[in-house]
């Protein structure tokens, strides 16, 4: 918060302040926690633990510093921080009204701590705020690892090392640290705040309760989910403290936590009627069905899906969360047999969050389970619990030491492979350190990079962006956000009205990511981009597409093309398919024996995704050039329409025209594209993306070839 509380924050003298604060944090991190294990105390700075942390820090540093910002949230935080640094105050945060000059619209009402930390990055590195975000993520990730080691060290050095390793090898933790700087910071501060109550449990005094309450209150400034820090800390204090001093300590804890962290929440309640969350009006527009679309795509459409894919996902998605949550399942039993503060707190946090997620599902809300990054918040405590479990099992001989070490080695290999795949073809230390962030656009694996570079070069007119933060950071082009509240009226209008309004706003381009947001798949904007009179395809890269929008309709005709055979991929149903359909969990098809696909002829009107899988509509005569595909579909699942483009070399590629949520009543969807030189449109492929959520039926299909009159 310091940048806006101190005058002249841009001056060079104040730049030393964050470094002094960081040094103080570093020195405090080396302090002992009260001893809790007779085998050797709780000293954090053991050689093995330090070695683990240093190796982790070095490897993660190379990845973090060298990778471009790609994830939507990371880009949005960078864009907002740059705007706040320019404004020099918080008067327009949160940005519930789009900035008229740039088009920046960011109505998230989360506390601004991470944004302001990035503002310091501007003070240090100038426009290279990206390096500041990476270094914050690195520092936070290493800090979280040390806190995990500090808490687990109360059970001995072995537990400390196991816990640090188990957090380090969690694939989703590594990918989130690499992709989202905010996750590393909020999780590190949440972990440190809640873990600090161990000191109070061992020696409960009102003074310590107030100190820990202050820390937990400050943790609420990182993110809306930070409100869970005092909630879990308070629950653990109530459950574990001696009764004699409980209420005096709890009052001190509650007062300081509320006073230090409640200000922003009260502000949100006063201004927006909600303490946490996002003030996105578009999420409530009936035409978009935003929440329903999200639930179906993430496998949360059915109650079993919400439980297995949502509340219990740390255990059902081992590829994402690794072994740490499974090992932690034994922690409650050990906590009952040998109740010690460190393990008891970890159990309360991990299983408390799971209980909260199940309660959310039971009340019909997806708030807690809709994003797996939420449950990642408690992963450090799962690592503490799992590390202590491993240490106790090895110590008692219940598990062989080499077996535990082998499991950790396999998990480390899996995490390294995941991080390597993420980094391959993208990481570039020279570009990252130089601040020439647009140089990453030339990386072949940077989806849409050439399109953003093209927009930067054109530099005329605004762009209708369906992923605005990347336009803000990488193109510098003024834009209109696809969620801008001013667009609401367009969704009940027609193509001509929408095109005319956008033209008056100076919009000359539209940029689609490699997927279809609801504002494209279920919106008049999708019809606009599929209308050759108003929209012209310019370029595509890895599924991302760039269109030029016209000021007035062009004289265009679209000649219908004859369709040939249709071929459905018949799926012989097995155990995996049956369970996927009953439970609403599509990935069970991959985990269990099930389908044996093979192609069979079918008429388009006999096809449905429930019993025949994908459908391919083949043109009698492939052609080169611009085309529009129109389909009439109905159902309850998510579908995608791909254009099959081939050439004389025999190679084919698929171009995603649209993906969307089907409606019970039949509705039309359209997609427009243009083949490159020497390539021809040969077929359309309609496929279900979330087949377990229902069936999709095709009622009609047509393809026309675009030509000027």
TrEMBL record:
InterPro entries in the cross-refs: LipidA_mod_glycosyltrf_83 (IPR050297)
Keywords, in A-Z order: Cell membrane, Glycosyltransferase, Membrane, Transferase, Transmembrane, Transmembrane helix
Compartments it resides in: Cell membrane
GO MF annotation terms: pentosyltransferase activity
UniProt membrane topology term: Multi-pass membrane protein
Top-level division of the source organism's lineage: Bacteria
A biological-process GO annotation: lipopolysaccharide biosynthetic process
Any one cellular-component term (Gene Ontology): plasma membrane
Positions of transmembrane segments: 12-30, 51-70, 135-153, 159-180, 187-206, 218-240, 247-266, 318-336, 343-368, 374-394, 406-427
PANTHER family for the chain: MANNOSYLTRANSFERASE YKCB-RELATED, MEMBRANE PROTEIN
UniProt protein name: Glycosyltransferase RgtA/B/C/D-like domain-containing protein
Native source species: Bosea thiooxidans
């Amino acid at each position: 918060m310091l940048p806006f509380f101190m005058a002249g924050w841009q001056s060079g003298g104040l730049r030393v302040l964050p470094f002094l604060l960081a040094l103080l944090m570093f020195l405090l991190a080396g302090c002992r926690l009260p001893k809790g294990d007779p085998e050797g105390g709780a000293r954090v700075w053991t050689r093995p633990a330090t070695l683990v942390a240093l190796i982790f820090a070095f490897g993660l540093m190379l990845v973090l510093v060298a990778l471009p910002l790609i994830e939507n949230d990371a880009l949005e935080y960078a864009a907002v921080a740059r705007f706040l640094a320019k404004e020099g105050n918080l008067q327009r945060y949160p940005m519930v009204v789009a900035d008229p000059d740039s088009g920046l619209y960011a109505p998230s009402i989360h506390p601004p701590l991470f944004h302001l930390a990035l503002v310091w990055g501007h003070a240090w590195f100038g426009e290279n705020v990206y390096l500041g975000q990476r270094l914050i993520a690195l520092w936070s990730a290493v800090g979280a690892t040390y806190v995990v080691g500090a808490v687990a060290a109360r059970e001995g050095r072995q537990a400390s090392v196991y816990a640090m390793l188990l957090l380090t090898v969690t694939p989703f933790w590594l990918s989130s640290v690499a992709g989202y700087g905010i996750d590393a910071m909020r999780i590190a501060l949440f972990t440190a705040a809640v873990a600090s109550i161990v000191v109070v449990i061992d020696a409960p005094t009102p003074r310590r309760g107030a100190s820990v309450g202050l820390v937990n209150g400050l943790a609420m400034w990182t993110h809306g989910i930070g409100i869970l820090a005092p909630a879990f800390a308070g629950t653990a204090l109530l459950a574990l403290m001696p009764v004699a001093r409980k209420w005096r300590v709890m009052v001190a804890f509650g007062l300081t936590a509320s006073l230090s962290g409640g200000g922003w929440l009260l502000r949100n309640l006063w201004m927006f009627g909600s303490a946490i969350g996002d003030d996105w009006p578009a999420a409530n527009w009936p035409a978009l069905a935003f929440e329903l679309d999200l639930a179906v795509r993430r496998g949360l459409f059915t109650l079993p899906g919400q439980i297995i894919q949502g509340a219990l996902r740390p255990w059902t998605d081992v590829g994402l969360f690794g072994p740490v949550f499974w090992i932690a399942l034994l922690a409650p039993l050990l906590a009952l047999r040998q109740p010690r503060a460190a393990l008891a707190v970890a159990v309360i946090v991990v299983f408390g969050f799971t209980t909260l997620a199940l309660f959310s599902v039971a009340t019909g809300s997806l708030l807690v389970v809709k994003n797996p990054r939420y449950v990642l918040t408690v992963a450090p405590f799962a690592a503490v619990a799992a590390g202590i479990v491993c240490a106790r099992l090895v110590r008692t001989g219940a598990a062989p030491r080499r077996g535990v070490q082998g499991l950790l080695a396999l998990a480390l290999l899996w995490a390294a492979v995941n991080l390597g795949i993420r980094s391959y073809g993208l990481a570039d230390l020279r570009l990252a350190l130089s601040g020439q962030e647009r140089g990453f656009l030339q990386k072949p694996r940077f989806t849409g990079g050439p399109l953003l570079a093209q927009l930067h070069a054109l530099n005329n007119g605004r762009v209708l962006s369906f992923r605005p933060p990347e336009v803000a950071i990488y193109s510098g082009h003024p834009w209109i956000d696809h969620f801008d509240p001013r667009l609401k009226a367009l969704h009940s209008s027609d193509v001509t009205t929408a095109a005319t309004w956008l033209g008056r706003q100076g919009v000359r381009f539209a940029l689609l990511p490699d997927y279809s947001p609801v504002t494209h798949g279920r919106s008049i904007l999708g019809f606009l981009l599929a209308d050759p009179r108003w929209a012209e395809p310019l370029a595509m890269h890895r599924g991302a597409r760039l269109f030029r929008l016209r000021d007035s309709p062009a004289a265009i005709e679209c000649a219908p093309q004859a369709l040939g055979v249709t071929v459905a991929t018949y799926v012989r149903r097995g155990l995996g398919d049956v369970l996927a359909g009953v439970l609403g969990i599509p990935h069970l098809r991959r985990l269990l024996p099930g389908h044996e696909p093979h192609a069979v002829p079918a008429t388009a009107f006999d096809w449905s995704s429930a019993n025949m899988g994908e459908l391919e509509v083949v043109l009698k005569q492939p052609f080169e050039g611009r085309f529009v595909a129109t389909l009439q579909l109905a159902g309850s699942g998510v579908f995608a329409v791909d254009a099959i483009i081939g050439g004389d070399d025999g190679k084919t590629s698929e171009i995603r025209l649209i993906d969307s949520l089907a409606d019970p009543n039949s509705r039309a969807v359209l997609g427009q594209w243009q083949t490159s030189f020497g390539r021809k449109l040969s077929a359309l492929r309609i496929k279900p993306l979330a087949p377990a959520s229902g069936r999709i039926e095709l009622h009609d299909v047509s393809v026309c070839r675009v030509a000027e009159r």
